[in-house]
Amino acid sequence: MKSLLSFLARMACNLSVFVSLTMILCATSLFAEERSASLEEIVVTATKVEEPKKDVPASVQIITQEDIKNSTAKDAGDLISEASIGHVHKYPGALTARIELRGLTTDLFSDLKSRVLVLINGHRAGTVNLAKIPAEDIERIEIVKGPASVLYGSSAMGGVINIITKEGKEGFHGSVGGEIGSWKYWKGFAELSGKKGLFDFYLTASRSASDDYDAKDYGKIENTGYNDETVSASLGYRFFDKHHISIGFQHWKGWDIGSPGARYSPDPDNYSDKGRDGFDIGYKTETFNATYYFVKDRDESHGGMTSGIGNSDITLTKTDTQGSSLQKTFTLDDHRIIIGGQWDRIEVESSRNTGAPYNPNSKYDSYGIFTEGRLSLLNKKLLLSAGVRYDYFENNILSTHGITSIKPRKENIDHVTVRCGLVYKLTKAINLKGNIGNAFRAPAPDELATDYVSSWGTHYIGNPNLKPEKSTSYDAGVEYVKDLLKSGLTFFHTKFKDKILGYYDSSLSAQTFKNVDGATIQGIEANLSYDVGLASGLNISIEPFTNITYHTRYSSEDNLEVSKYGKTLLYTPKWTGAFGIRAGKEKWDTRLIANYTGDEKVQDWNSKSPTYGKAIDKGDFTVVNLKGSYRPIKNLEITASVENLFDRAYEYVLGYPMPRRTFVAGVKWVF
Questions:
Q1: The CA-based dihedral angle spanning residues 431, 144, 40, 370, taken in that order and rounded to the nearest 10 degrees
Q2: Which domains does the chain have, with CATH numbers?
Q3: Which in 91, 313, 633, 660 has the greatest CB count within 10 A?
Q4: Residues with Cβ < 8 Å from 454, sequence gap 6 or more?
Q5: How far apart are CA 575 and CA 524, in angstroms?
Q6: How many Cβ atoms are within 10 Å of 429's Cβ, its own excluded?
Q7: Which H or E element spans position 559?
Q8: Each residue of 460-508: pLDDT tens digit?
Q9: Predicted confidence (pLDDT) per residue in 250-302, tens digit
Q10: What does DSSP assign to residue 182?
Q11: Are 473 and 457 in contact (CB under 8 A)?
Q12: Is 513 within 8 Å of 466 (Cβ atoms)?
């Protein structure tokens, strides 16, 4: 356990090497009226307090309610794909995982092994599968890029994706409607919300289904249909002066979800049933925030790990995630300090009807305390921030039905994290920003404490001497925001070390884990949008936009990985980009967006291929989506969308082709 002196020493060291960025950005004067301060983008994820985006030292990307409304996305996974932040593992069968942010990714199966943290309303989402979070439940998504472990603890290495759900708004509002589309898709939904006096509420419910889809060059992909339902609610009560208590609930259930397998190993009858139920309660004032949450996540697979006919093998994984947090903000003039504490528990239970489960049961407890202060200097033009966090982890491998050789075991570990940030307001329109910070991922229970022999005879042993995975990141950028123009440019450099590697140790005659070198990742993030319609004095909004991430370096430094796959980091595109245009007037709006995913190295999982197990090139692709809405009368809204407008063949994961051109039409009655 490191002492307070160690904290201060590391903070001083980081401050001493802080490199500020000076850029001169020229822009022509714009012919548009000034937007009011009330329309300024407010974010909460980056610093855990509500403040303007321009005051946040981190690079932040916001998926707004307008973006969501005009998107063809059905869930959070689709929305993240449209954001073009990096690689996305997106399968048919309601599974979107392995989200990449600055070369680091969520884990395909485990929240504990992710290097990007996914939150809902500021707490752990309880799942890494973003397809379980329906788009109609989302108010906005805040994507904070770079190290965020000081405020959020383990896993926030590449950044944080915070999905913020809807709440009641002033007045009384409701809608009911439906959609139909290609592949026998249909959906019915209803929404009710309001805010009156001291109370606010929100309620939505939907039910949808789809049949098997066609993929270009393959024809019909059998076993890609699904059924799902969702119910979401929130209730809030405001008392005294700016004291607010809220209760939220989210339910998603999917059943008979086809699992078609890759085209090189098709599976016509495997399916899964999945679910997520989340509950949270919060109490908030202007300077204090307290929350408790509980999430039950369930994945039941029918068919086992082999392809072909037969699905009698049933594997069930149940994950319960809960936690609480307290946070207090103290202010002195324009300066502030945040102090908080956090507890999270993740319990995983696995079972299998035909034998031993593939993984043992486990329990993980995390306890963290943190503080971050900000100085406001030079008449609020210079904002300096610094923070530190201490985390303590208890990892337990538990008795597991079906694994008779399991030896229950407990291992503890702790960690310290620091970061510093700077914002300098060069002019009213130009902000210079920078960050230096550490982030980490604590070892999971199986990596520290496993000790059992599997049903196929392999001995698994955890390594109690493992260190947390760590990253040190530097980023510097400039933002130019004036009138109807928004733009930003950020350079980032990340050194990833102490990567946790699973390997076979011949001296132990067992599969175990060790720390190895990780990777070096650096690149540039850029965004630009400008409403040329309003700027030209037209009574119509026409706003081209773009968002690009370009990796100038993404090199693995793990000797074993380099020897097997080469130096290039796997599942990391050279660059990704979103390019499009938004347009609208009083009665209509539309959005055309093209999402580009560049070439990347991926592992070949086709056992019949001569390159099986090796790294191969996966080509780039572009997907273009179009959606529009029209309101012929006040209470009626008609929508139409086309996904994959140009009918391209593409796949996020090698061997899993996505649908051909897809049409959807909808109608909604608003009251």
A1: -90
A2: 4-28+47-166+338-670 (2.40.170.20)
A3: 91
A4: 356, 358, 403, 460
A5: 9
A6: 16
A7: helix 559-565
A8: 999 999 999 999 999 999 999 999 999 999 999 999 999 999 999 999 9
A9: 999 999 999 999 999 999 889 999 999 999 999 999 999 999 999 999 999 99
A10: G
A11: no
A12: yes
Q: Using the 8-state DSSP alphabet, how is residue 55 labeled? A: G
Lookup: tokens for 388: 């530190």
Q: C-alpha dihedral over 120, 121, 122, 126, to 10 degrees?
A: -30
**Residue 97's pLDDT is what?**
86
Alpha helices (H) along 237-316: none
Q: Minimal CA–CA distance to 123: which of 323, 330, 301?
A: 323
**N- to C-terminal Cα separation, the chain:** 58
Q: What is the DSSP letter of 225?
A: -
Q: Measured between alpha carbons, how far is 569 from 557 in angstroms, rounded to an integer?
A: 9
- Cα–Cα nearest to 247, from 231, 233, 228, 261: 233
In single-letter form, the type of residue at position 239 comes to: F
User: What is the sign, positive or negative, of the torsion defined by CA atoms of 597, 599, 603, 608?
Assistant: positive
Q: Which of 525, 431, 472, 387 is nearest to 86 (CA)?
A: 525
Report whether 382 contacts 339 (CB < 8 A).
Answer: no
For residue 235, what are its two tokens? Answer: 């209730």
Cβ neighbour number for residue 669 with a 10 Å cutoff = 13
DSSP per-residue string spanning 116-152: SEEEETTEE-S-S-GGGSBGGGEEEEEEEES--HHHH
- Residue 194 sits at the vertex; the CA angle it makes with 191 and 195, to the nearest 5 degrees, is 160
Single-letter code of the amino acid located at 423:
V
Q: What pLDDT score does 305 carry?
A: 62
Which pLDDT belongs to residue 144?
95
22 SS3 class: coil
The confidence score (pLDDT) of residue 455 equals 84
Low-confidence residues in the chain, pLDDT < 70: 1-40, 304-311
Inter-residue contact 322 to 345 (CB < 8 Å): yes
What is the pLDDT at residue 41? 77
Which residues have a Cβ under 8 Å from the Cβ of 262 and sit 6 or more positions away?
605, 606, 653, 654, 655, 656
CB 487 within 8 A of CB 477: no
Where in 398-518 does DSSP place strands (E)? 409-425, 430-441, 451-453, 459-461, 469-482, 485-497, 499-505, 510-516
Please give the C-alpha separations between residue 613 and each of 426, 452, 561, 616, in angstroms, as whole numbers.
52, 27, 12, 9
Amino acid at 68: I
Beta strands in 222-360 (DSSP E): 226-239, 243-258, 271-284, 288-302, 314-332, 335-352
Tallying the residues shown for the chain, one arrives at 671
Adjacent-strand bridge partners of 470 = 440, 497
How many Å apart are CA 649 and CA 622, to the nearest integer? 9
Residues paired with residue 292 on neighbouring β-strands, in sequence order: 281, 324
